[in-house]
Amino acid sequence: MFMPNDSKPKIMIIEDDRFITQVYSTKLKEVGFDLAMVADGRDAVPAILNEKPDLVILDLMLPGKSGFDILRERMNSDELKKVPVIVITALAQSKEREMALSLGAQDYIIKSDHSIQEIMQKILKHCERCGIVAKNIG
Fold first, then answer.
1. Which pLDDT tens digit goes with each residue over 19-44?
2. How many domains does the chain have?
3. Entry pTM
4. What are phi and psi of 55, to 5 degrees?
5. C-alpha neighbours within 13 Å on the C-beta side of residue 32
6. Rounded CA separation 126/76 (Å)
7. Residue 5 domain-assigned?
8. Is position 44 within any domain?
9. Which residue, 37, 36, 32, 35, is CA-closest to 4?
10. CATH number of residue 38's parent domain
């Protein structure tokens, strides 16, 4: 949980689509979050351990290592399990959703089913639920 002080809460975006990463990062910076970005699945777990984000936004289809593999690694690490993960993906099958949730994802959002504004609202609701509050959100 983020404790208020001079630092901003950090969200890590693990997404290989640069456009989507740019849109998410712009919106999240506007409301006061620090960000870390990872585009290759192989770099995700070391980056989470190094950056210690308050929340991870995870795509499932990544080069190098899938989001499912990252969730599996997370389940086997006490340190990683503490970090909430929201999956935002194009994969729309119910079996994929069930698998991600069973591997510990807090939510599963299908990109094509929601506007960017709706996705941002869902992310901010998860932040509130986890006690992660940026200064501009209140």
1. 999 999 999 999 899 999 999 999 99
2. 1
3. 0.90
4. -155, 145
5. 14
6. 23
7. no
8. yes
9. 32
10. 3.40.50.2300
